[in-house]
Backbone:
């Protein structure tokens, strides 16, 4: 299950600690895919936040929730990125922090939602 995590940057993901430890993916890039992949925003690279969380859920940043059309009951797939070249491509090409625009949908990928605005207002 995925949950929104306001403590993450727009290019991070929080995984369960036992998953991070089992696959040795601490501070590595992974690819998150929402099925069906109807738009480019459904396929992004996120860096695994260390050391991981104690719960059996994946935390995703609020900035990518709308772009992925995440309603938290769909199927999401995680792909491990095996080599250094692929890690570099994830850090540049699929990184949501550096790719703020979408040429296909003609608009921003990272757009503030009402919930994000309420959180910012409450913190001020």
Residues:
């Amino acid at each position: 299950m995925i949950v929104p995590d306001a403590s993450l940057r727009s290019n991070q993901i929080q995984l369960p600690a036992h998953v991070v430890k089992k696959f040795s993916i601490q501070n590595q890039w992974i690819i998150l895919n929402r099925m069906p992949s109807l738009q480019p925003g459904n396929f992004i690279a996120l860096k695994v936040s260390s050391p991981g969380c104690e719960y059996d859920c994946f935390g995703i940043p609020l900035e990518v929730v709308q772009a992925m059309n995440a309603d938290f009951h769909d199927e999401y797939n995680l792909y491990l990125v095996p080599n250094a070249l692929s890690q570099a491509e994830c850090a540049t090409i699929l990184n949501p922090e550096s790719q703020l625009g979408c040429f296909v949908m003609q608009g921003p990928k990272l757009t503030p939602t009402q919930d994000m605005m309420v959180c910012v207002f409450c913190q001020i």
